[in-house]
Design brief:
The structure holds 2 protein chains of 2 kinds. By secondary structure, chain A is mainly alpha-helical. Helix content of chain A is 69%, strand content 0%. Chain A has 15 helices and no strands. Chain A is flat, with a radius of gyration of 25 Å. Chain B is mainly alpha-helical. Chain B folds into 2 domains: 62 residues, no CATH class; 211 residues, Orthogonal Bundle (MetI-like fold). Chain B is 69% helix and 3% strand. In chain B, strands 1-2 form a two-stranded antiparallel ribbon. In chain B, a hairpin with a 2-residue loop joins strand 1 and strand 2. The two termini of chain B are 25 Å apart. The chains are: A mainly alpha, B mainly alpha. At the A-B interface, helix 1, helix 2, helix 4, helix 5 and helix 6 of A face helix 1, helix 4, helix 5, helix 6 and helix 7 of B.
Chain lengths: 311, 291
């Protein structure tokens, strides 16, 4: 990270100094240029444009009118389903976010202790559910609503229930089941980055730690391992946030859209509904801005929490 | 002071109690069963003949395993309007070109952002990171207009170039450059007169090998699983996943072929995963950095 320059240069202004630094580091600009150019074109401009659109009534047919904060006011005061979506999203995020994060971290740490050959196999076992786009649909087969679903069939056969349960159509079961499926698929990219991060820690650090009086693996984890992989921890946290708050695709695939009584309706669903089906682009942009702000807030909170690691 | 030393295999390990080892193994095994059983069920379903798929009470394990579902899947593939190999080629081409372009562009930018101090470097990185929190649903319209202006609609470019500037890869590489690449090593290379590009390629990149192998795994897998795209109209350019989805849309009688297709779709990403993971372990073993 950049350190504050302690020396105050009196022979040049700040602008001059910056200009000199820029000239000196021409090569750095050349290195970031291809990526940043494409990033600006395909990500930054669309994001900034939709910020602008969120203050209009754009509907893809008529010329947009500037309506200030009307979309945002409508969201919070005049859209009951949005409030349900917020509640569900928060429940998902509060449970799935931290649980998936800690699970990824702990499993990665446990796996790192195994001998290399076994390590690769065990990593695959845990990562496999995230490897294919639609493999989670198997939960739909396991918990199928008819008697041929494995769970219903087994429960019926044991006499525990008298008629099949419509697992993904019953407001009581939707949320817990979707949370289980979300956790099942949660050992994804952040999990892999934790494993890769753990492998980068130099063994001498642990030996030095042992000499300095570290007495158990837990102390070693807290005082050496975690502090040496803080950038990876941050990376995983951002992924957990976007994964937990952006949750929706799994619900749609398993329960259909909309879910019964909006029992698992999340902000992402609301966004897809208005942006993709009703073409109320202005309103949809406002929804995505709200989601964006919530995530940035969550990110701030996590940065604070992670700064306590190792203390 | 006597340190507790334990021997695992032929290695002496520090700070590892036998009780802790046992506890961790049990937790790992239980979680592993939860993760793995549904995967076993996927394979079981794909091997079940039709009467076992619709049997009451349903069984977890297959009784008379058959490859009929796979044969059905392949014969259904034969009836497609565009030869199926074309869909496979499209997906492989997009996945490979997208992944390697992304790896290269993101790594070189990440190196500059993490290891060269230049005005605006940190600001750029922050902007990229914060954009990760943005759901792309609403920017779809802007992107479509952009693709139209570039004349890329209905070409491979519309699929490949956005993959090059995906945000996650830059973030991942930047984080690993920060931890795994020591400034002192770079300094001495610069003093020896190596250019930044050379330092990046010959010194920094080998040090972050676990990171770029991770990037290859998830980027490839994301592109491999891509379904229908709004930018592609021609049947000749559509993806493998899309074509498989068309087969599965056939309903109950295709349940078996559907299960088989899930297994087939998984095989390639698993192969990529196994190859790159074994590579990570090899590097660590030979570099002398660890064990």
């Amino acid at each position: 990270m950049s350190k504050k320059k302690a020396v105050i240069r009196s022979d040049m202004t700040r602008a001059q100094w910056t200009w000199n630094e820029m000239k000196k580091n021409k090569v750095a600009y050349l290195m970031v240029a291809p990526y940043m150019l494409l990033f600006t074109l395909f990500t930054a401009i669309p994001v900034l444009l939709s910020l602008g659109v969120s203050f209009t009534d754009f509907n893809m047919l008529q010329m947009p009118n500037f309506i200030f904060f009307d979309n945002y006011i409508r969201l919070f005061l005049d859209d009951d389903i949005f409030l349900i979506a917020c509640k569900n999203t928060l429940i998902f995020a509060v449970i799935v976010g931290p649980a998936s994060y800690l699970m990824s971290l702990m499993v990665a740490w446990f796996i790192n202790e195994l001998p290399p050959k076994i390590r690769a196999v065990v990593t695959l076992v845990f990562y496999a559910p995230s490897i294919s786009g639609q493999v989670y649909l198997i939960w739909g087969t396991l918990f199928s609503g008819d008697a041929y679903g494995w769970v219903n069939g087994t429960l019926l056969n044991l006499g525990l229930i008298s008629s099949p349960i419509q697992w993904f159509q019953d407001a009581d079961y939707i949320m817990p089941l979707c949370i289980v499926v979300a956790l099942w698929t949660s050992l994804g990219t952040s999990f892999l980055s934790f494993i890769a991060g753990l492998q980068g820690i130099v063994r001498a650090m642990f030996e030095a730690g042992a000499v300095d009086g570290i007495k158990s693996r837990w102390q070693e984890l807290w005082y050496i391992t975690l502090p040496s992989m803080k950038p990876q921890l941050m990376f995983g946290a951002v992924l957990s946030i976007t994964g937990a708050f952006g949750f929706g695709g799994v619900v749609t695939a398993l329960c259909g859209f909309p879910s019964v009584d909006y029992a698992a309706h999340t902000i992402t669903h609301h966004l897809d509904d208005y942006g993709g089906a009703r073409f109320e682009t202005g309103y949809a942009s406002a929804i995505s801005m709200v989601l964006f702000i919530i995530q940035v807030g969550a990110n701030k909170l996590i940065v604070k929490l992670l700064s306590k690691v190792g203390n | 002071m006597a340190k507790k030393l334990r021997v695992r295999g032929h290695k002496v390990v520090l700070n590892r109690s036998a009780g802790g080892d046992t506890g961790i193994t049990i937790v790992l095994a239980l979680l592993g069963v939860f993760m793995f059983l549904p995967m076993v069920y996927v394979v079981m379903q794909s091997l079940k003949p039709l009467d076992e798929l619709w049997m009451f009470p349903p069984r977890f394990f297959v009784r008379n395993p058959t490859f009929k579902n796979y044969r059905d899947l392949f014969s259904l593939m034969d009836t497609s309007w565009v030869p199926f190999s074309r869909y496979i080629f499209n997906t492989v081409f997009v996945a490979v070109a997208g992944t390697f372009g992304h790896l290269f562009l993101a790594s070189i930018a990440a190196y500059a952002m993490a290891k060269i101090k230049f005005p605006g470097g940190n600001a750029m990185f922050r902007f990229v990171r914060i954009s990760l929190m943005f759901q792309s649903t609403v920017s779809g319209i802007t992107s479509f207009i952009l693709m139209t202006m570039l004349g890329w609609v209905d070409t491979y470019w519309a699929l490949i170039v956005p993959a090059w500037c995906s945000t996650l890869g830059l973030y991942l590489m930047r984080q690993f450059m920060q931890t795994n690449v020591a400034d002192s090593v770079l300094e001495s290379a610069r003093l020896d007169g190596a250019s930044e590009l050379r330092t990046f390629w010959t010194i920094a990149m080998p040090m972050v090998k676990p990171a770029w192998l991770t990037l290859i795994i998830y980027s490839f897998q994301g592109l491999w699983n891509q379904g229908a795209s709004v930018y592609i109209h021609s049947e000749q350019l559509k993806s493998f996943n899309y074509a498989i989805g068309q087969i599965m849309a056939g309903g109950i009688k295709r349940a078996g072929a559907g299960a088989a297709s899930t297994v087939i779709m998984m095989l390639v990403p698993i192969a990529v995963f196994v190859i790159s993971q074994s590579n990570i372990i090899e590097t660590m073993g030979s570099s002398g950095m660890k064990d």
